[in-house]
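Lab meeting notes turned into a lecture example. A postdoc, R.K., suggested we walk through two folding results consecutively so the class can see how the record format repeats. The first protein's sequence and structure tokens come next.
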Amino acid sequence: MTDSESPPKFLIWSTMWWGYRYAFTNFGLLWRCAGVPFIVYFALFVAGSFVIIRDIDGPQNSFFNLEIMTSMSGVIGAMMSTYLAVAWHRAILLGETNPGFFRFVGPEIRYGLVAIALVLAPTFIEFLVAVLAVVTGTLGSGNTAYVILIGALTFLVFILSIFVFAILPGIAIGDRKMEVRRTLRCLKGNRWRIFVFVILSACVAVIIYLAGNEFSSFLRSYLWFVHDLLPVYPFTGQEWVIFAVTESFSSLIEVGLLMLATAGFTGGTSISYAGIANIRMLRDSDYQPPEQLMRRMTQLR
């Protein structure tokens, strides 16, 4: 196929729906991919709640404990999401159904570093422009050119990051030939569809996660109010039991929806990656996806 010919049309809504439907209807596979990190993260959530509530009106190191638990929660949460994303990509695109015990090695590290770089890229650009402004002395925070330059560079980096996110599954499955420049050229006619798909799918994932956060917070506050369980230390034995049940259930909802949101977004980008690989094969004779992906693509159609 030449560049002038019409490529296969990328389907935005059906691709996004497929990702979330696959996550909700294949919970057994999802548990095999993320069960161990889920349990660790869930336990950390509950333990953090106990540390925070114990130190209210208690020891003077409560802020230190809170900071430690918050930092650990963020790091473990990022590792869990990265591990789940890689395992879920490989389950969908390569047919791996037994990822094994929780690991964080080559693919997970590369995937996580690239994902973090993409998220932080706009901030990094703003930092570089600010440094340039200080060094040269030609731009100021109130200067129109300064604002336009930051806005333009951030927008360009944001667009490029979206497309890199679309081919990020290649890192998880070891598809080293799916480079950005040639892939973007082959996606002519579908670029805006893929851009819209990634944005919408990410928005749905954020909504699911925030819904879990809000519901768990509401449930926690409601149960505290019903049982007159105000966060005042020390608790009685019965209050500790009520608190433990409340925190465990609310944390289960919050962490569970985080897992489903990650799997839904990852599943959508996985199936879209299969479509991108198919388009790339049709328009680039030099591109050949991994053999496992080739076999899997015939099953996913």
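The second example is placed directly after the first for contrast:
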Amino acid sequence: MEQINDLAQLATTAGCVAFVTILTQYVKPLLPECLPVRVFVLLACLAVMLTVTVVMGASVERLLLAAVNAVIAASACLGAYEVTYNRDGNG
């Protein structure tokens, strides 16, 4: 665990979940009303995973796997938000 903040860590599902969860908490007040948080989280996870995959060396197989992992990461982000910040169940 010498380099916890490197590109390889961000390429993992757990790294993407941590980054996007924190990013969402800071950006959420700035989002327009017409953009649901769930859509923002999915787009952010897709952007992070696909960008890191392209930088680290992309192939069609890796890009497809990154897209699937982004959906999994988005689900985990939303679950983490529900458990920690949105306990009352509203918005």
